[in-house]
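Suppose a classmate hands you a notebook page containing two proteins, each written out with its sequence and a corresponding row of structure tokens. How would you begin to make sense of it? This section walks through that situation. The first entry is reproduced here exactly as it would appear on such a page.
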Amino acid sequence: MRYTLKQLAVFEAVASYESVSMAAKKLALTQSAASMALNQLEKLLGEPLFDRNGKRMSLTPWGQWLRPRAKKLLFDAQQIELGFTGQQLISGELALGASQTSAEHLVPHLISKIDSDFPELRINVEVENTENVIQGVLAHDYQLGVIEGRCDDARVHQEVWVHDQLVVVAALNHPYAKYDRVSLAQLEQAKWVLREPGAGTRRIFNSAIHGLIDNLDVWREYEHVPILKNMVVNGAYLSCLPYLDVVKAIERKKLVALNVPELNMARTLSFIWRKDAGENSLRECILSEAKWLAKRGFNGLMPK
């Protein structure tokens, strides 16, 4: 084979940074050396890998096809090097995109366990809503994602981590808090504050009320759960939030979970990755550790 690992490393870095100069800096190369390696690779393969728009580099369809395969080759090469230098095979870095609920309540437990069992493995976490995590996985920004609900994209593999549920919450002094059961008509008359469109929580809530509630009075939409919780605690609003996000406030009697039998809002938190990503020992290690935690219920954190 005529292409080299150096050329593939330059290609992957340029794909990540969309810039030859930034890729060169990352790889400790001169910009001219990085440009030469990339040009040689394109010439050898006989296809353009990037569209050049000024200084910005975006992948062509050929570049998109090559990227997961190049990443696998580079990962395997790193594992060979680590093996022959006597280092732990489970070492290196993995980029994880996580939805807000999982990032706040579950991912810290996962990182703590991995730090204990595999101290040479580093997880770089970015918190996004579910839609952005899916897009980040597809764009190769994340090697692994944690999302709420389903992903229907055929390019993505999804594996359930834990089961969770959404609950409708109100303040302790809200008129609905005294009822044993709240009707759909009452929900329709209430003022709501909800997660933004694109959030997994919002998608599941919208699906649950579809065909049951025609006109929901949504006053505010916010990305951050603490804002929504505090607005419910301090005001006359209702919200729909994950059990994990409100269980402590319910136990402290700051919030009340309303009983709305007609709404089925069970959901899953799942890992996702690209189907064409190939084998990855770091990903498999993280999944194994995550399954161990799930079997033990995160020390009673998960709903029964």
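The notebook's second entry, a different protein, reads as follows.
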Amino acid sequence: MSTAKATLSALRQRIAAIETTARSVPPAEAASSGSAPAISTSRAGRIALDRDEVDLTLGGGLARGALHEIHAASGADNIAASGFSLALALAAAPAGRTIVWVRQDYAAKEGGELHADGLQALGLDPAALILVQLRDPLAVLRAGGEATRCGALGAVIIEPWGEPKALDLTTQRRFSLAAEISGVTVFLLRPGARPMPGGAETRWQIASSPATPMAMNAPGHPTFDLTLLRHRHGPPGGPWRLEWNRDEKCFQRPTLLRDPATLSRIEPAPHPAERAPFRLAG
């Protein structure tokens, strides 16, 4: 438990530093850049997923400043669910904002550690990620709550393993309320858990899908099959198939037949010497 306390203390220090930096931006500078205030009790708008049927089902897109729950369709789809969660976090996070990922160490043992090359392949600069890894699920939820209350963050991913008793309806409602107040979008990733009633705005089931090859038979964009299991303000929907475009940081509908002349070029990842490792809290 002493290790968990030290990690939580380190996370609080990092969050305090982020908030201090955000508050130090002069209001005039923030206004001239066209961005929202660094600390805000609301972050209006929605996250566009496909600008089509999915967004229509969601009432205009995925709600910001809310809690969203993500499940894998099977154990083999845990990696796809993790990738989808990160893609949503990237789509939700304003430019320059840090993403915090709080995960239980058993999730890493079962599903694998996060790898900087894989994160960068999805469009995340590893230096923009704070990774918090804890043994106890209660500590994971506490750290996730600390991060959710920080309005200077871009997004938060909380990943406990299985079905801990501490993650009850009351805890989920607290996450939802904290996200609403801070404006930070929170993604509750649930490896090893069954979809059950809870306090999330939406609940998703994710499965991996074959990617459509690009020019010269190059690997295509990461592709996901997603089903909306629950929507607080409307009916469920899906399944749908979407690709993730790392360069545009947005989802798009797969194109079955691609004309090489119209293909967008994916920039290669930087040389290893140019990459910065993601930051560990603790």
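A careful reader of the second entry would note: The two ends are 13 Å apart (CA to CA).
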